[in-house]
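testing teh design pipeline on a random one, pls ignore if ur not involved
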């Protein structure tokens, strides 16, 4: 259940932090809209995106347009799964992702065109229910001029089936071979090897010799997924996994000999016992099974435990030896031999029409070569698909095809299947790789792909379900599966408009979550098609020659520019020696032609000193015979040498850190300052941090001229774990809202509000108390984040805390110190933050003899909480108390509540939470008697009684306060019995103060000293 914070729409004046070449916008300053979006205060002050359609939008003035920018978004997921957000800038759509609940940065390099002010939006369109997306801020950093426009891709003159060369369009688009291979490996690992079983994996093994692909959205096993999985495995050379999938499909899904459906496959199995839910076929499964088995035979041979070729031919025969589809029987043949088309189903009316996405002419071409029989039928089916069915099924303007169609292409309007629905996503993928393999029926296929690309190219973040004319979409999802399939269409077009489709697909995160099955398999196969990893594997096809001589071939490699501006890239051609050929010619970018003697076995030649860019390369024999394009080669721009962060001096915790002793590394590395000059002109004058001389005790310099969004970092060489009070020395003359927060490594230490001290050199010491630092790793980075600005900082001191946690009769147990919990509970700054329905915490060996249970919590919603205390067993029969925590008025408003309990001795204690929404945030618990007041009474010693005098007490409304020594006192605060602050004195510079016009009631007056605090009870009659 979503926790939604209500907010009022308003006009926002964006607060943009501008650093040289860098602009930062807080997400909460944007215009927020959508069904669920709202403000959040954890894990940062920002915006939560909870469902599709949630959006934040605004505008920004960038330093240079057009320009290449690094766009970085700071955010987090609500769970351990990957959360996503789409950034829309004009026609540019980029996806950003955040893995896990820890705050992280996600970045992209984006070429931005247009003019200022530049409108942009962040929108959630990929919500699958597994997480929420939390965003803090977005930063635009200028990198330089946009790269030159990419030239149109070049379709090879010889189709891949003949040349044996399969294009890597990601490399053609500008990615490196390494980047592409790393992502290919990551997809395989994600779905087949070590992905999380609940949110990532699709491949599950059964025993030692079988495995299945799971439809995670429906929790069943489908012939579609099994056959896709086998195809993926044979393409990637994964024989062990291929064989396990085939054994499972043959054992549980394929109908045995002697049955009426012999040789065919049940399209749907139960996951629990592998029984057939529906005995009938979905013919696309058989098509992929057959082709994958033929490929396995070509790759591995059929002399082992599985005769791949025989199995493929057996399935093909079984697809044909059933009653004709026109008979109306059940089952029927999978092929209507009169129409020469695959049918949708094999039972009754379902065999009377087709599904355009089942038309796989590239596979039929393979069958025509590899099958033992009916070879002319398979050839005819390929031709009918390309020249008859697909052109007639496609809408004449949009190119969109229906899920189901008649054999003449007219839509079959069953449910929504006469529209462009989920099955129809695959059509452009099927046509794209068929064209790349065979380049047949160009005048039929290329226009169909071109129309669909044109339809989607002007629809950033396009939805996925459409009427065929494109006039209406019935959903808002921007599905990775369709993004992937559309990109495969680029294989058939020579037009630069395809590059954004390739870019978006590469940048789209690997699908995860409950509905990863269909999206994920299309994503993986499309990636293989576009990276040259999906091939027509056959051992019986003769590669055509050129006038009796093989086509010239060469392997081309690129060496990128070393550093930006060096122009020292290289393009290297490597050749094999060919008999009867004495010379070869090659060129890059259509420029000069270079000859090479190949008979002397030189073998390679290199273009040196090549500038960054995209180059079309080709090769031909020396007598101008047989020119062949080798595609595009990309020389990447060299890296800008980034400055390295290093300590300015050696800091320690505990210890004092002077604000001016921030790390080396410069702007954007060790600090972020809103301008490039040192406004104070002191200290490190060659850098942009503003330092001035200070009149504070100890003299030296202080940090000044602070602005919202600035930050500084300090490397702490030695950290001693422990509990610390953090003292911050600050000054200000301003009444604006401002604060300072600290983070050590990835741990948030806390924040404090900065008061008006009535002078830029009127210094006050603020404290963040009882901060737990658990990591003792060396060289941790301390970060100071400035919010609001307009204050000075002199130093930060870490001193060991002498708080009331040690030896106190209260004996607090921190909530995060539980021995076990359920489910995926988050701890932020020592607070367990996301307690909800059926969650529980376990604490071992707890003495409950005190007769009291006290807990400190906050609750920002108005729904009653429901907490049960259980002993020794997490069952209702073991309840000793039931508590209904009420709202505290905000998630940052903490109160303590005490209830009576019975029992004695030491027990295992469970706290079980029973209501359905966000329950409470829990700080600590105690089973002792000393916690039954909201504010600890520490005024028992004679020394403390002499330090403070409150009179008259009781009084009629006016109270005088006298302290004997104010030098050690930091602040004086008056609380009511609920723990709510009523009055305070933050600046202590005299011995006498007073509070007047107090209402009747009982109060507690707390005097905060540097090492302890003193409490006096105050009664107003």
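output:
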């Amino acid at each position: 259940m979503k926790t939604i914070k209500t907010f009022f729409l308003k006009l926002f004046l964006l607060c943009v932090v501008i650093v040289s070449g860098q602009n930062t916008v807080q997400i909460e300053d944007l215009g927020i809209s959508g069904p669920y979006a709202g403000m959040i205060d954890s894990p940062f002050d920002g915006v939560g995106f909870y469902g599709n359609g949630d959006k934040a939008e605004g505008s920004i003035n960038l330093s240079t347009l057009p320009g290449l920018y690094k766009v970085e978004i700071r955010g987090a997921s609500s769970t351990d799964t990957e959360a996503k957000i789409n950034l829309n800038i004009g026609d540019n759509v980029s996806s950003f992702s955040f893995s896990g609940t820890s705050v992280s940065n996600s970045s992209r390099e984006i070429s931005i065109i247009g003019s200022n002010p530049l409108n942009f939006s962040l929108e959630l369109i990929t919500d699958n229910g597994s997480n929420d997306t939390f965003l803090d801020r977005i930063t635009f950093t200028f990198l330089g001029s946009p790269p030159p426009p990419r030239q149109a891709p070049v379709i090879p003159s010889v189709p891949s089936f003949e040349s044996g060369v399969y294009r890597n369009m990601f490399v053609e688009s500008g990615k490196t071979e390494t980047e592409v291979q790393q992502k290919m490996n990551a997809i395989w690992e994600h779905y087949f090897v070590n992905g999380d079983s609940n949110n990532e994996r699709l491949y599950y093994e059964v025993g030692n010799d079988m495995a299945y692909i799971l439809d995670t959205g429906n929790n069943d096993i489908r012939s579609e997924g099994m056959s896709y999985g086998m195809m993926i495995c044979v393409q990637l050379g994964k024989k062990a996994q291929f064989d396990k999938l085939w054994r499972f499909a043959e054992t549980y899904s394929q109908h045995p000999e002697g049955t009426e459906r012999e040789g065919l496959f049940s399209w749907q199995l139960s996951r629990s016992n592998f029984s057939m839910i529906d005995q009938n076929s979905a013919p696309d499964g058989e098509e992929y099974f057959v082709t994958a088995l033929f490929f396995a035979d070509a790759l591995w041979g059929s002399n082992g435990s599985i005769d791949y070729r025989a199995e493929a031919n057996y399935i093909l025969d079984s697809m044909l030896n059933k009653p004709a589809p026109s008979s109306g029987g059940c089952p029927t043949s999978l092929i209507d031999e009169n129409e020469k088309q695959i049918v949708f189903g094999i039972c009754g009316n379902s065999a009377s029409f087709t599904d355009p996405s089942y038309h796989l002419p590239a596979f039929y071409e393979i069958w025509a070569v590899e099958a033992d029989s009916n070879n002319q039928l398979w050839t005819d089916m390929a031709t009918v698909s390309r020249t008859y069915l697909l052109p007639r099924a496609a809408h004449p303007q949009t190119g969109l095809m229906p899920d189901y169609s008649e054999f003449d292409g007219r839509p079959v309007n069953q449910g929504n299947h006469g529209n462009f629905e989920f099955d129809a996503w695959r059509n452009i993928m099927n046509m794209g790789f068929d064209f790349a393999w065979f380049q047949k029926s160009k005048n039929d296929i290329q226009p169909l792909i071109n129309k669909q690309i044109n339809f989607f190219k002007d629809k950033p973040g396009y939805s996925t379900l459409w009427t065929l004319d494109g006039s209406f979409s019935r959903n808002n999802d921007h599905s990775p599966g369709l993004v992937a399939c559309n990109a495969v269409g680029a294989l058939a077009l020579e037009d630069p408009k395809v590059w954004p489709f390739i870019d978006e697909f590469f940048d789209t995160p690997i699908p995860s979550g409950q509905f990863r099955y269909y999206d994920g398999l299309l994503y993986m196969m499309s990636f293989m098609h576009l990276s040259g990893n999906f091939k027509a594997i056959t051992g019986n096809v003769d590669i055509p020659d050129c006038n009796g001589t093989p086509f010239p071939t060469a392997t081309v490699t690129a060496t990128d520019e070393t550093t930006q501006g060096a122009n020292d890239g290289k393009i290297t051609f490597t050749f094999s020696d060919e008999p009867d050929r004495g010379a070869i010619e090659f060129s890059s970018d259509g420029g000069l032609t270079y000859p090479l003697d190949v008979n002397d076995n030189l073998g390679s030649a290199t273009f040196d000193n090549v500038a960054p860019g995209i180059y079309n390369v080709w090769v031909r024999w020396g007598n101008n015979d047989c020119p062949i394009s080798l595609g595009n080669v990309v020389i990447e721009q060299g890296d800008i040498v980034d400055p390295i962060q290093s300590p300015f001096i050696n800091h320690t915790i505990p210890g004092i850190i002077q604000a001016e002793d921030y790390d080396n590394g410069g702007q954007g590395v060790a600090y972020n300052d809103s301008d490039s000059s040192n406004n104070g002109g002191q200290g490190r004058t060659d850098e942009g941090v503003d330092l001035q001389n200070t009149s504070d005790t100890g003299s030296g310099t202080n940090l000044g001229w602070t602005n919202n969004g600035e930050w500084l970092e300090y490397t702490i060489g030695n950290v001693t774990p422990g509990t610390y009070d953090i003292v911050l020395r600050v000054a200000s003359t301003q009444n604006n809202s401002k604060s300072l927060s600290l983070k050590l490594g990835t741990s948030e230490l806390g924040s404090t509000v900065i008061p008006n001290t009535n002078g830029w050199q009127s210094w006050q010491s603020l404290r963040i108390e009882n901060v737990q630092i658990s990591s003792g790793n060396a060289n941790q980075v301390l970060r100071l984040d400035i919010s609001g600005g307009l204050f000075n900082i002199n130093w930060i001191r870490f001193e060991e805390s002498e708080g009331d946690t040690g030896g106190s009769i209260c004996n607090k147990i921190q909530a995060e110190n539980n021995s076990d919990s359920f489910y995926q509970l988050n701890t932020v700054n020592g607070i367990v933050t996301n307690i909800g329905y059926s969650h529980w915490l376990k604490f071992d060996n707890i003495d409950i003899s005190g007769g009291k249970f006290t807990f400190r919590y906050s609750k920002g919603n108005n729904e009653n909480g429901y907490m049960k205390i259980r002993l020794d067993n997490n069952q209702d029969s073991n309840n000793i108390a039931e508590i209904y925590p009420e709202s505290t008025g905000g998630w940052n408003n903490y109160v303590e509540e005490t209830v009576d309990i019975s029992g004695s001795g030491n027990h295992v204690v469970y706290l079980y939470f029973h209501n359905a929404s966000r329950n409470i945030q829990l700080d600590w618990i105690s089973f002792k008697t000393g916690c039954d007041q909201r504010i600890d009474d520490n005024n028992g010693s004679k020394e403390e009684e002499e330090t403070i005098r409150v009179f008259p007490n009781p009084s009629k409304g006016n109270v005088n306060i006298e302290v004997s020594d104010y030098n050690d006192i930091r602040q004086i605060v008056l609380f009511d019995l609920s723990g709510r602050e009523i009055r305070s004195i933050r600046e202590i510079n005299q011995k006498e103060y007073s509070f007047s016009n107090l209402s009747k009631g009982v109060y507690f007056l707390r005097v905060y000293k540097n090492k302890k605090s003193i409490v006096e009870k105050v009664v107003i009659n």
